[in-house]
UniProtKB/TrEMBL annotation:
Pfam families: Glyco_transf_4 (PF13439), Glycos_transf_1 (PF00534). Residues 21-171 form the Glycosyltransferase subfamily 4-like N-terminal domain. This is Putative lipopolysaccharide N-acetylglucosaminyltransferase. GO terms for molecular function: glycosyltransferase activity. Keywords: Glycosyltransferase, Transferase.
Length: 381
């Protein structure tokens, strides 16, 4: 079977600039390539050739640009290539469905949704309905996303299913392993973090991600655990360290915080796992209806107890799972402080959540499982 995976116009695959969708495709494509002839089509990058075969997967790359520019470049390449594909798997761009259907009329189309891309401001109702009709299956990263599509377009009922994302279980080592402990000791020494607990935030620094809420929650924590450190891993956008108004605001909060706050700035995707090894608990402070942040899987794999918000799909892998706490009032620093203090004050609870998180990751959230579910969809036709 010949299969084509079409990425978004934002970032390249492999994820040399980071990105959740890019990490997802990079992880599953070689696994799928063991069974099918897989081609990945995405954007070019100075660090990557326009054409290559890597880990048994063929990569085609076109110049980045706006969505209309990318759409036209994708369609033109498909027409010039003249290659037939049994399955075309499009990622997070329902507005690519109809142009690709026209270019490859004989291919079966599968659409993966990692965000609320069927909202009216993203796609008009006529085009949305036509895209749903042209798509064989819609794969979502959370039930929240799938139910949202169905609420807008009832004709999607029975067509969507959730395939939860995954994590590299070999890279994100549980914190109790010797290698993770060595990484932890090195990072603490390099950054002068002392022996106190580390509260870990990993994500872009934007208002909807809520780093400021975490920074404003530190007062009560500092009074009880003055030796603790909040580590903020991330920047405004993938692969860069530009200072936006919001980044400057978060850094100002950090400078005035009653306890140590380390803002690392951008960390390359192949080094992020090290900070998970250094943490004691993980905080996801999503203020928006997050589809389901990948960092939850990474925290589970690392054995970090999770504090997350009841926003979007995030609670689906935490609530009732025994691996963390869910904050209902996402914008409340006081509620976050209580959750942090609850975990820091109960070592037995942290240990149970830590072990449970890793067990969940190993049982349900490895990339082999994700690839197997995608393969089953491809082979169903």
């Amino acid at each position: 079977m010949r299969s084509l995976m079409i990425c978004t116009e934002k970032l390249p695959v492999p994820p040399v600039r980071g990105g959740a969708i890019q990490t997802y495709i990079h992880a599953v494509a070689p696994r799928l390539g063991r069974h099918h002839r897989v081609t990945v089509l995405g954007v070019a990058d100075p660090e990557l050739p326009d054409r290559e075969i890597r880990d048994g997967v063929e990569y085609w790359r076109v110049p980045a640009g706006t969505f209309p520019q990318y759409r036209d470049r994708v369609v033109n390449l498909l027409r010039r290539a003249g290659r037939k594909f049994d399955v075309v798997h499009l990622f997070n761009r329902p507005r690519l469905v109809l142009p690709v259907r026209e270019a490859l009329p004989e291919s079966r189309l599968i659409l993966s949704l990692h965000n609320e891309m069927f909202r009216p401001e993203k796609i008009g109702p006529e085009e949305a309905r036509a895209a749903i009709a042209a798509t064989e299956r819609i794969v979502t990263v959370s039930n929240f996303i799938g139910r949202g599509v169905e609420a807008l377009y009832p004709e999607a009922r029975g067509k969507w299913s959730t395939i939860y994302s995954g994590v590299d279980l070999d890279r994100f080592l549980p914190i109790w392993t010797p290698e993770a402990r060595r990484i932890r000791q090195r990072l603490r020494a390099e950054h002068g973090l002392g022996r106190g607990p580390i509260l870990l935030y990993v994500g872009r620094l934007s208002p909807k991600k809520g780093a400021d809420v975490v920074a404003r929650a530190l007062g009560p924590v500092a009074r009880r655990y003055p030796e603790a450190t909040l580590v903020l891993v991330g920047s405004k956008w993938y692969g860069e360290d530009r200072i936006s108004d919001y980044v400057a605001y978060v850094r100002a909060l950090a400078a005035r915080a009653p306890m140590k706050v380390l803002a690392t700035g951008y960390v390359p995707a192949d080094r992020v796992h090290e900070w998970f090894a250094a943490g004691d608990l993980f905080i996801c402070a999503s203020q928006w209806e997050e589809p389901l942040a990948r960092v939850h899987y990474e925290a589970m794999a690392a054995g970090l107890p999770i504090i997350t918000t009841a926003r979007g799909g995030n609670p689906e892998v935490v609530r009732g799972q025994g691996n963390g706490l869910v904050v209902e009032e996402a914008g409340s620093p006081e509620i976050f402080a209580r959750a942090i203090l609850r975990l820091l004050g109960d070592a037995d609870l942290r240990t149970r959540m830590s072990r449970r998180g890793r067990a969940l990751a190993e049982a349900h959230f490895g990339w082999d499982r994700v690839a197997a579910e995608i393969r089953a969809l491809w082979e169903r036709g």
